[in-house]
Fold these 2 entries.
Entry 1:
Amino acid sequence: MIKKILEMLAQMFSVKTPYDEGNETIIGGELPSPRVAIDRRDIHYYPDSARLVVDMILPRVMLATVQASNSMEPLIDIGHIAVLSDNEKYMSHLNFGDIIIWEKGGKKIIHSIVEIGEDSLGWYCRTQGLNRHTNPTPDEEIIRKEDIKWVALCVFWCDSKELSWGVIYE
């Protein structure tokens, strides 16, 4: 009886990747959260002017919207604004759950990292959209550091469908 209980507990609390048998993700079926480490001391709120300022995200920050593929719902949907950076401070510490924008063959994709590995060519990752109905399995592509253009720092949930800049296609 105790052996059966221990087996059940082991199944409940085992950590798996999307590539493990049963296609489960993380403990309890949860997905890893983005872990981009913006230092809390770099975030400033000025209540008198209702401004939020984030320091130290140079060299470049880009604001972008996504198209209606639904692959990143419910976190990112059409019209939402993703704040992106190509700063080495963030790009050099990518981890499970981080949302990246990568490009292959002229196609830009914004998905979450679900696998990280190293092979004879060096570091790589695989991604998957957060919406398990439209993206039930990880993307087939192996993504190298040089394929990654941006990492998402945060998302503003707003209606920006009319913006004419920074559109990311997925």
Entry 2:
Amino acid sequence: MLEQVISPDVDACRVLLDQLADKWTFTVFLALRDQPLRFNELKRRVRGITQKALTQSLRRLERNGMVSRRIVETAPPGVEYSVSEIGKSMSEPLSVLAEWAARQLPFILAAQAQFDSRPESVAHADTAHLSECDTLTARGHL
């Protein structure tokens, strides 16, 4: 039998998407793509984000070279965040992904609703090999 090998490009993509695919990081990045913003302005634009979550997202983006952090010499001193050169190169592909997601979301939600409306024995037949806890988690009960 032939062994399927995942391309290094796919693996690199997975690593990057793991960094962006948490609850807030993608949204924070998109909020910064048009102009540099200070922390509090960014927090106002990303409705619902906590200070802790925003700090974590900004640190993750900065660590990965997607965002630059600059001290602003004002009274009181401030910090401004902007998309870095690496981030700018990623901006267009992420915009395309965001547009695709917006167009496809109704179809994805319809597919989920159709799947979820199937009798439990059919919809979750693939969970037979899981433990009871794993099965409940897979079904969204935990």
